[in-house]
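Question:
When you can, review this sequence-structure pair and walk me through the tokens.
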Amino acid sequence: MNQEMIQRLIEIYPFKSTKEIADEFGMTTSQIYNKAYSMNLKKADDYLSTSSSGRLQPGSSLFRKSNGTYQKGNVPMNKGQKMSKDLFEKVKPTMFKKGIRPANWKEPGTIEIRKDKNGHFYKYIKISDSNWKLFQRHVWKEKNGEIQEGNVIVFRDKNPMNCDIENLEMITRVENLKRNWLHNYPDEIKQLIKTKNKLIKNNGKNIKSSFLFRNKKLKRAIRIAINK
């Protein structure tokens, strides 16, 4: 991550979801979390109190704490106890036998379309059991060898389903960021996005992050700027 990306991260991390930041930077959410942790960046309290943060959704830690589920430090009643012989005999017929494969087992070389952690759909190929790889990376490595650290494989026609080697290109993460960041927007759009982020940062208590883009006048301004 270069200095430009670091400065951008400092500006938006407290007020924007990590998934959205990961999409913008062309990185995984784990990479963004780790970088923010190393820089001691934290989400703003105003952002964490909104539904956008995900803390109030079922499955989140905050939701579980208010939902009567086990908390850290609670000891299960059956901890340390072995299964009784009678119970073992009852469940034995349902146990998987060594060498038996589940009904959904796939042959190595199987290609499937799956959604990644950021919500994007890509092709994956099975290398071996519990080992699936992004198909575009597999195709590139088969033809051109190892992918250098800090590089990503992108699609020339922007179609992630087209993994033909002629459609693949290896570029750095920095270049990928430049292709998908503000640099590609007209000056009017850049200014609108910057203004929106400043307003959210300065008035987080009174403004929801999506308010400005629900505003009809702002939508009209964006359409005019794009069509110029």
Summary: Residues 187-202 form the longest helix (16 residues). Residues 13 and 82 are 47 Å apart (CA to CA). Residues 207-213 have pLDDT under 50 and may be disordered. DSSP finds eleven helices and five strands in the chain.
